[in-house]
Amino acid sequence: MTSSDDGGYVHDPSSFDDESERREGSDGADWVDDPAHPEASDREFDWRGWTLVAVVLFAFIVSPGIILLWPPATDYLFALIALPLAPAILLAVTAVWATTRP
After folding, report:
1. Which domain holds residue 25?
2. What is the pLDDT of residues 11-61, one digit of tens each?
3. What residue spans carry the region label Disordered (predicted)?
């Protein structure tokens, strides 16, 4: 089913190749024309990376050990829901913080 008037979006690649209609710097996409090389950026494994490693070790080794050794006399839901939830939230927040740069 084809029609000459489809009334929707039609992708036209040739409209993006016309340099005369393009305004430099107006769309904020200068990085597309001249991308930075990955080695030129400051992306070292610094204290943020080591903080993330420490939180990963806590979330995958220390926290399960605490859950395993938690006294059985306490609430079952607390030991199996609340205790694993805290390291998971800490790991998620730390991972986002460590991988984003100001």
Report:
1. 17-99
2. 777 766 655 454 444 555 666 777 767 666 667 788 888 999 999 999 999
3. 1-42
Domain count across the chain: 1
Cα–Cα distances in Å, from 65 out to 22, 56, 58, 78? 59, 14, 10, 15
pLDDT of residue 53: 94
Distance, CA of 65 to CA of 69 (rounded, Å)? 6
Between vectors from CA 71 to CA 68 and to CA 75, what angle results, nearest 5°? Answer: 100
CA dist 7 and 100 (Å) reads 41
The Cα–Cα gap between 32 and 92 comes to 30
Decide if 28 is inside a domain: yes
Token duo for residue 11: 């992708």
